[in-house]
Write the structure tokens for this entry.
Amino acid sequence: MVDLYALFESFEQTPIGDGIKQSVWIFPAIEAVHLLALALLGGAVLMLDLRLLGIGLTTQSPSVIERQTRPWLIGAVSVMIATGIPLFLSEALKLYDKEAFWVKMSALIVVLVYTFAVHGPFARRDPALGALSRTIAGVSIALWLMVAIAGRWIGFS
Amino acid sequence: MDLAGVALWLSETQGSIALHESLYMYTLIESIHVIGITLFVGSIAMVDLRLLGRAFSSTPVSEMTRRILPWTVAGFVIMAATGLLLFYAIPVRTYHSVWFRLKVVLFLIAAANIWFFHRRVQRDVEYWDRKQVPPRSARLAATISLVVWASVVVAGRMIAYNWADCDRPQPDWINWIAQCASYGG
């Protein structure tokens, strides 16, 4: 059994984790980029989910919108992970004790699997509008909201 | 009464104190503010990417603005309503924050850009509605929009940090911009 607490403790000793802790402005700067990527991610997800709900760019097929938004979605997720990791390293021990952090990470894993294994492939088959497409879109929005809200809550709890 | 006085007066109202001291209300409002930002900036970014020819190039520009901008407006309403409440919860410190002041200036630039886009750029949209890459003026408006709104988000996020606050020793130029002399009335 790995001692998770000791592992998290060692994360804070890494040069990146320690370097961020020593600076007053690096953490906020990374956090700002993390937030900008969230907005881009939200835009890309919204475009496809609105279409699956039947209220977005309805003249375009879901597969076209999926293809148009995919690079921006992948780009935004990559930036969020690339900025999220150093933020995590700088305060790993604090996060270890925060429920919001574990909720966020669990929801994140679920939503990433869902987005790339269920949501995207579903849209690429150009589904007809209906209860199924609405459910697929609704679950996507709900899961992403959960990640974002739990993330914001980390800063407060 | 000057603006600093208004901020001080607001800070002494019951609603402001209640919000400021609440355990969950402030947190909840700030979370909704972030969701509003995601909806607003995310949807406006998609329209801007279309104007730059970087996404949805087979979709007419007029369809993007007709179908997507209502969501931008909804995001703006959520953002503005929660933003005003966040200001109301901490009026004096926020009024004197250099980041908040920068944010207000950036808002004015963004508003001017929206006016420029709707009045000048969009006027002859029927000629380039279906073009994969819209004309230079539209691309310019889209670039300004992306840069300015991103800066608004960054400046807003920085308001939460206290390194430039009036109640700490600051260089003269920060004291001047933040009008620290009138801090707290």
User: Anything to note?
Assistant: Chain B has a mean pLDDT of 93. Residues 58 and 141 of chain B are 20 Å apart (CA to CA).
